[in-house]
Amino acid sequence: MRVDAHGISVDAPAGWEVRITRRAAEGHAPGSHRRPVLHAATVPLPVVRGDFGGGVTGLLTSDDVFVSLFEQDPGASRTALFADSGFPVPTLSDFSPNRLQRSIPGQSGGQWFFHVGDRAFSLYVVLGSHARRAALFGKVTPLVRSVRVQGDLEGDAG
C-alpha cells in the first residue's frame, strides 16, 4: 500500500501500519510550519504517540519494528548535524541497544540525520529485539528503501 502526504511517500509492505501526519499545533506559534512526521510499525499505531515512538516502542515484541521519519525545523539542513545529503541506507551494524531514544531492555535502534534539498530529517528505527536484529533488519529494509522525500516544500505551510 502506498502512502503519500506532505512531500513524503512510502510503499508499506504487508503487515505494516503507516501514517504521515503533521505534528500537533500545540506549542506552535500562529502561522508557523507544522512539520511532517512519518510513523510506520508492524504493530497497530496508537492514536496518541510521540514523534520518536513514545507510546509505540513499548508495544513491540521481538518480531516487531518501528520507524519514524521526523522533519526538523527549516534551516537545519544547513547545519553540520544534517550535512549528509540524501536518504540514508542503514546497515545491520548501525543498530545497537545504545542508540535508542528511550532504552527498553532487549531492543535495538539506529538514528540517522540528513537533508534532502532544503529539508532536514531524522530517521529513527527501533528493532523489537537486538538478538533478532538480522531478521528484523530484513523486515525494515524494504520499507525504508521505499521512502521518497520531495526536496523543497518552501511554500507548504502547515
Indicate the proportion of strand residues.
Answer: 25-35%
Can you give the mean pLDDT? 90
**What is the distance, rounded to the nearest whole angstrom, between the alpha carbons of the first and last residues?**
25 Å
User: Which structural class do you get from the secondary structure elements?
Assistant: mainly beta
Report Rg: 15 Å
What general form does the structure show? globular
Strands side by side in the biggest sheet: 3-4-5-7-6
Helix content: under 10%
The total strand number stands at 8
Total domain units: 1
Structure description:
- This protein is mainly β.
- The chain has one domain (2-24, 33-149).
- The chain is 9% helix and 30% strand.
- It contains 1 helix and 8 strands; from the N terminus they run βββββββαβ.
- The strands form 2 sheets. A 5-stranded antiparallel sheet has the order 3-4-5-7-6, covered by helices on one side. A 3-stranded antiparallel sheet has the order 1-2-8.
- A hairpin with a 2-residue loop joins strand 6 (108-116) and strand 7.
- It is globular and about 40 Å long.
- The two termini are 25 Å apart.
- The relative contact order is 0.21.
